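Continuing the series of single-chain predictions for the mutant panel. This is the parent chain; the variants come on the following pages.
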Amino acid sequence: MVRGARRPGPVTLAELEAKALAYLDRFDSTASNLRAVLVRHATRAQSEGKGPPAQVLAQIDALVQRYSSSGLVDDSRYAYSLARGLRERGLSRVSILGRLGARGVASEVAERALEQVDADAGEDPSDNPELDAARALVRRRRLGPLRPPAERAARRERDLAVLARAGFSYSVARAALEAEEREEA
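Parent structure:
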């Protein structure tokens, strides 16, 4: 038998567990993503090319539930980790919540994770996490005062548009560019 080739027949619980543990060994995941990975595996394993039978889907659901209850799969931990990385890269609240939602994180869990990230990052209660994220994007993309002096005035509207497309409000975008100008001076 060729390495990686499976024998014909239905997917067993042992195969599903092995696939889930191998996946979780490499990646942190949400419960819905792990379920999707296992359903794809079971679908590919079916010889007739149809979706997995109901009993296999029930096994997948039970396996995902077991891993969630044991803490091996934790949507809150995943959401916090991803939100922290995205916030450090300079993404807006809207963008982060959208990405977490696309990854299968419930909106309440995503909101709590982002609030926790912002609370952990700000020592001063007057800090504005959105402004900090916008400033990080300005630095990363070398916008506004980080452009060559000859291009700054001509590119100001484009820089504001970059920040707007990233999900920042006009006031936050303007404040981020102005804050970087003050630091540059």
